[in-house]
């Protein structure tokens, strides 16, 4: 067998594994229903902590879910079931919610402490492929995470099942972000050492672009403005007076609407079609505040105006987020 043949075979095997895992995710997605919503309601209403527990590979998945929940506004920690049976149940409070993870639902070490957990905490939610299992019977809410098959050729090593469980945990965390209106500023407070947190504490003047800026003078033709718009690469062109004061903005969207309305006249004065007194940022604004404005208005770039109303620069969403350099997790 040649090297090329060997490579082709291994790539085919790798793609088969990914296909199996994708099929498992699709199966779990299609089964999501009332139990997921009920689990979400219980977790959103939790006034204590969401306590994740599981053993082996399920425990490793549980640690990641707990970390994701904690970093996105839902206090959470991982409880090892064996340690729980030897005193760590003392960490549980009645206002806590338990999320138990087991693919089979028949993990003895976990099921042995579930009655105690249920008596100590408010609710028990289970993520399991065994919806008729012992763990499921001991739970208040059961989310079915069963998959058609594992990617392991022997059907033994948890592969597709752990991927599916991890994805359900992510789905719960992301839904809770929206439920709790967890904003970028909240994320920054929980990630003061991360790259995103550091960038969002900066001021606009530290991130904005100074030159060359896409600018045309008041009175320029629409054709001239389109040339600058096309060359600028920011999706907009600023219109300024003789003193450099910002008068208006022409965007890609404005041009598209003119074309659709049959009103695109290249000899028209740009002032007649620009957005006058446009939304803008100031040099001293925090990047987090500007990013919130961009997200709420569905825009990606803002002119930056100095106190004397002169155009000081432009700031793009990529400038705030770091143009791909920002990482939300560490590997």
From TrEMBL:
SUPFAM superfamilies, alphabetically? Answer: SIS domain
Instruction: Tell me which residues are marked as the site Catalytically relevant.
Output: 57, 109, 150, 191
List the PROSITE patterns hit by this protein, alphabetically. CBS (PS51371), SIS (PS51464)
Binding residues annotated for Zn(2+), in chain numbering: 80
Give any GO molecular function from the UniProt entry.
carbohydrate derivative binding
Q: Which InterPro entries does the UniProt record give?
A: CBS_dom, CBS_dom_sf, GutQ/KpsF_isomerases, KdsD/KpsF-type, SIS_dom, SIS_dom_sf, SIS_Kpsf
Protein origin, superkingdom: Bacteria
Q: Which CDD domains match?
A: CBS_pair_SIS_assoc (cd04604), SIS_Kpsf (cd05014)
SIS domain sequence ranges? 39-182
Q: Which GO terms describe its biological process?
A: carbohydrate derivative metabolic process; carbohydrate metabolic process
CBS domain ranges (all copies): 208-266, 274-331
Per UniProt, which keywords does this protein have? Answer: CBS domain, Isomerase, Metal-binding, Repeat, Zinc
Q: Which Gene3D superfamilies match?
A: CBS-domain, Glucose-6-phosphate isomerase like protein, domain 1
EC number from the UniProt entry: 5.3.1.13
The record's similarity note reads: Belongs to the SIS family. GutQ/KpsF subfamily.
Entry-linked NCBIfam families: kpsF
Q: What is this protein called?
A: KpsF/GutQ family protein
According to its UniProt entry, this protein's organism is Desulfomicrobium baculatum (strain DSM 4028 / VKM B-1378 / X)
The organism that produces this protein has a lineage beginning with: Bacteria, Pseudomonadati, Thermodesulfobacteriota, Desulfovibrionia, Desulfovibrionales
């Amino acid at each position: 067998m040649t090297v090329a043949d060997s490579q082709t075979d291994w790539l085919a095997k790798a793609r088969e594994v990914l296909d199996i895992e994708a099929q498992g995710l699709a199966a779990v997605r299609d089964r999501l229903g009332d139990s997921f919503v009920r689990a979400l309601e219980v977790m959103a209403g939790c006034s204590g902590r969401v306590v994740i527990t599981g053993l082996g590979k399920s425990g490793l998945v549980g640690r990641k879910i707990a970390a994701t929940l904690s970093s996105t506004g839902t206090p959470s920690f991982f409880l090892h079931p064996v340690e729980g049976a030897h005193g760590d149940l003392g960490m549980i409070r009645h206002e806590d919610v338990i999320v138990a993870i087991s693919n089979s639902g028949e993990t003895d070490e976990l099921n042995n402490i579930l009655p105690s957990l249920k008596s100590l905490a408010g609710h028990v939610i289970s993520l399991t492929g065994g919806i008729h299992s012992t763990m499921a019977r001991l739970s208040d809410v059961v989310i079915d995470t069963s998959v058609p098959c594992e990617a392991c050729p022997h059907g033994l090593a948890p592969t597709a099942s752990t991927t599916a469980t991890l994805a359900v945990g992510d789905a719960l965390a992301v839904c809770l972000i929206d439920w709790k209106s967890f904003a970028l500023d909240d994320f920054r407070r929980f990630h003061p050492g991360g790259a995103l947190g550091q960038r969002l504490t900066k001021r606009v003047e530290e991130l904005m672009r100074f030159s060359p800026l896409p600018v045309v003078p008041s009175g320029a033709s629409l054709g001239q403005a389109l040339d600058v718009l096309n060359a600028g690469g920011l999706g907009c062109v600023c219109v300024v007076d003789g003193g450099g004061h910002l008068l208006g903005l022409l965007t890609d969207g404005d041009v598209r609407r003119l074309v659709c309305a049959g009103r695109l006249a290249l000899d028209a004065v740009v002032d007649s079609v620009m957005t006058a007194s446009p939304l803008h940022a100031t040099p001293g604004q925090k990047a987090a505040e500007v990013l919130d404005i961009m997200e709420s208005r569905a825009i990606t770039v803002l002119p930056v105006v100095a106190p004397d109303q002169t155009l000081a620069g432009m700031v793009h969403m990529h400038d705030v987020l770091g143009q791909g350099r920002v990482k939300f997790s560490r590997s």
